[in-house]
Amino acid sequence: MDEEATGGAGNPDALLAAALRGIRRARNMRASQVAQAMGLALRTYQHFEEGAGPFDLERIRQFADATDSDPFAIVASIWMRSPEFAVRAIDSKPMVVMMLALRAFEDELAEDITLIEPRVWWGGFKRLFQDLGEHVRKRDLTAETWLDDQARRLGLKATFLPHVRRRTLADE
Predict the structure, then answer these.
(1) Which residues of the chain register pLDDT less than 50?
(2) Quick one: 172 exposed, middle or buried, by C-beta within 10 A (0-12, 13-18, 19+)?
(3) Taking the C-alpha atoms of 98, 102, 104 and 109 in order, what is their torsion angle to the nearest 10 degrees?
(4) How far apart are CA 3 and CA 21, in angstroms?
(5) Is the CB of residue 160 less than 8 Å from the CB of residue 144?
(6) How far apart are CA 34 and CA 67, in angstroms?
(7) By CB distance 3.0 to 4.6 Å, which of 27, 66, 119, 163 could disulfide with 37?
(8) What is the pLDDT of residues 54-89, one digit of tens each?
(9) Are 31 and 21 in contact (CB under 8 A)?
(10) d(CA 128, CA 97)
(11) Taking a C-beta distance cutoff of 8 angstroms, is the pair 32, 90 a contact?
(12) What is the distance between the alpha carbons of residues 76 and 73, in angstroms, rounded to a whole number?
C-alpha cells in the first residue's frame, strides 16, 4: 500500500485503518458482517475500521476473532508501517504462533530471560527467519501443481495449491 492509501507512512490511525480494511476485504466480508460478528452497530464498526477513536486492543482482538485473523500481526503492522503484513498473516498467523512460543519460553526462563542480550535475540531471530525463508524457497509444490492440473482436466476447481501460490501462477 502506498502512503496515500495509508494516509501517510507515520500515521498510526491510517495504518490501522488500512490493515483492518485489507483484512476484511481479503476475507470477502462486508462491514455489516464484521460489525455483527463483533456485536457492534454498523456505524460503530465503521468508526473503528476508519482508525478513529482510542486505540483499543480488545476491539482488535474481537475484530481478529470475527475475521479469523492475527490480532498481534494487526498491532505489529502499525509499528512495522506495513498494513500489508497484517493481511499476509491472516492465514498463517505468525505473530500468534510467536506469542504462544514466547509465552512458553518466558514461563520456562522466568527471571533468567533478562540475561538474554538484544544482540542474542537478533541473532536468533535472524537465523529463524533465514530458515523460514529457505523452507519457502525449497518447498516442493509438484504434488499440489499436479493435483490442481488433474482437477482442472476433470472440470473441477483447482484447490490444492496454497492460495498465495495460486495467485502467483494466475499472474504468470
Answers:
(1) 1-7
(2) exposed
(3) 160
(4) 15
(5) yes
(6) 7
(7) 66
(8) 899 999 999 999 999 999 999 999 999 999 999 999
(9) no
(10) 13
(11) no
(12) 5
Residues in the chain: 172
Read off the C-alpha cell for 14.
491510517
Decide if 22 contacts 86 (C-beta within 8 A). yes
Can you tell me the distance from the alpha carbon of 37 to that of 35, in angstroms, rounded to the nearest whole number?
A: 6
Closest residue by Cα to residue 23 from 10, 41, 4, 38? 38
Rg from Cα positions in the chain: 19
Q: How remote is the C-alpha of 40 from its chain's centroid? A: 23
Q: Give the DSSP letter string of the chain.
A: --HHHHTSTT-HHHHHHHHHHHHHHHTT--HHHHHHHHT--HHHHHHHHTT-SS--HHHHHHHHHHHT--HHHHHHHHHHT-HHHHHHTTTT-HHHHHHHHHHHHHHHHGGGGGGS-HHHHHHHHHHHHHHHHHHHHH---HHHHHHHHHHHHTTPPP-SS-HHHHHHHHH-
Q: Which three cell numbers mark 81?
A: 508501517
